[in-house]
């Protein structure tokens, strides 16, 4: 009996000593260490102590966290009321494995033209925007921007200076000289009206946010001229950019080396044309990709460009799933094979049979985020 009591006292002294040593570490050092961990580990660390919970739920830590995590390629598709999500590392020097999960998604939602913006993804369901955090596996439905809007075009931007996400909404299929904007994470969740100096019609939800500026294709009212609209997320000011190409059907807006670009490949997927907006001037670049052992028509074209400047080709439904990275500087491909992504075993274990899993939605350069709309 005495031996048991002595053992308990030793354990208690050990716990007290460890707790004391941890508490003696400066808070900024603890914060830096925790910010280097994967999101799963950070969430687990919140159970360690009230201090660690306070650090990892602090707005500064949450805004800083995505900058510390490495970029990944996020793939997802919906079927039978579920969203199947796959996260793949983009860095060739990191171990190549697939993180995946499935989750119920809000009914009647539209995932077209999705982009990951500082770890969050925005899509719509009728006239309501929905914010999805793939890391936290949470969906948040925002209030309707305007009562009489039956449909919306929605974009998501991020101001890296103030660390704020903002959702921009306009009536769908209708030219407008105003929009509705809401800032995520604020105590007061209300929309405000922003006037636009150029009345226009957004072409679709295909926008991209680069260094605090949101870009999307549009048509000017009355003149019907194709343009690109820009929205400074911090100042909430709009501006107009002329297109150097023929019409809005040409190419896809993407970030390229920190600048706005529009990319398109030919029908045989070999020739790539890239228009880059540099110092307010459009520069045109052409790349001719080398031949590959499998026709690139089995891929869905260029889905984006990695932070290292590689063009990404993601396949349609294939029995063996792989991704091609094309480096224009080296004029070479890098192929990465992945197991467990929509292959026969995956279909069998999830009861999907031979049904089509198209389309795969792709988000390039996705980072983990701890942000929640109600935080």
Provide an overview of this structure.
InterPro entries: F-box-assoc_dom_typ3 (IPR013187), F-box-assoc_interact_dom (IPR017451), F-box_dom (IPR001810). This is F-box domain. The chain is α+β, with helices and mostly antiparallel strands and 375 residues long. 16% of the residues lie in helices and 44% in strands. The strands form 5 sheets. Strands 8-9-10-11-12-13-14 form a 7-stranded antiparallel β-sheet, with no helix packed on it. Strands 3-2-1-23 form a 4-stranded antiparallel β-sheet, with no helix packed on it. The protein has a 4-stranded antiparallel β-sheet with strand order 4-5-6-7, with no helix packed on it. It is globular. About 2% of the residues have low confidence.
Write the layout of secondary structure elements.
Blueprint: H1 2-23, H2 27-35, H3 39-45, H4 50-56, H5 59-68, E1 72-79, E2 82-89, E3 98-104, E4 116-117, E5 120-125, E6 128-133, E7 138-141, E8 152-159, E9 164-171, E10 176-183, E11 192-210, E12 213-220, E13 226-232, E14 237-242, E15 252-256, E16 259-265, E17 271-278, E18 281-288, E19 299-305, E20 311-315, E21 321-327, E22 332-338, H6 344-349, E23 361-366
Give descriptors for this structure.
375 residues, alpha+beta
């Amino acid at each position: 009996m005495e031996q048991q009591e002595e053992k308990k006292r030793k354990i208690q002294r050990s716990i007290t000593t460890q707790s004391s040593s941890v508490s003696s570490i400066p808070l900024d050092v603890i914060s830096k260490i925790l910010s280097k961990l994967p999101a799963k580990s950070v969430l687990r660390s919140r159970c360690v102590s009230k201090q660690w919970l306070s650090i990892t739920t602090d707005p500064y830590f949450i805004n800083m966290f995505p900058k510390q995590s490495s970029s990944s390629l996020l793939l997802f598709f919906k079927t039978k009321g579920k969203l199947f999500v796959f996260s793949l590392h983009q860095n060739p020097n990191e171990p190549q494995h697939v993180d995946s999960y499935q989750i119920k998604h809000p009914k009647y939602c539209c995932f077209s033209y999705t982009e990951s913006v500082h770890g969050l993804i925005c899509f719509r369901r009728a006239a309501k925007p929905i914010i999805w955090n793939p890391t936290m596996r949470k969906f948040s439905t925002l209030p309707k921007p305007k009562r009489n809007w039956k449909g919306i075009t929605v974009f998501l931007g991020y101001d890296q200076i103030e660390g704020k996400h903002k959702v921009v909404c306009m009536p769908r299929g209708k030219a407008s000289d105003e929009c509705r904007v809401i800032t995520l994470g604020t105590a007061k969740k209300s929309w405000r009206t922003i006037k636009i100096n150029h009345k226009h019609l957004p072409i679709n939800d295909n926008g991209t946010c680069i260094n605090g500026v949101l870009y999307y294709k549009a048509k000017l009212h009355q003149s019907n001229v194709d343009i690109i609209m820009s929205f400074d997320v911090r100042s909430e000011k709009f501006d107009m950019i002329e297109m150097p190409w023929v019409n809005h059907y040409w190419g896809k807006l993407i970030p390229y080396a920190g600048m706005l670009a529009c990319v398109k490949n030919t029908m045989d997927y070999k020739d790539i044309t890239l228009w880059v907006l540099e110092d307010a001037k459009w520069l045109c670049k052409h790349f001719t990709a080398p031949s590959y052992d499998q026709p690139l028509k089995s891929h869905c074209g260029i889905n984006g460009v990695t932070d290292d400047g590689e063009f990404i080709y993601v396949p349609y439904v294939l029995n063996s799933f792989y991704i091609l990275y094309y480096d224009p500087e080296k004029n070479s491909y890098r192929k990465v094979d992945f197991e467990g992504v929509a292959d026969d075993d995956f279909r069998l274990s999830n009861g999907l049979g031979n049904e089509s899993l198209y389309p795969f939605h792709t988000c390039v350069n996705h980072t983990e985020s701890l942000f929640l709309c109600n935080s």
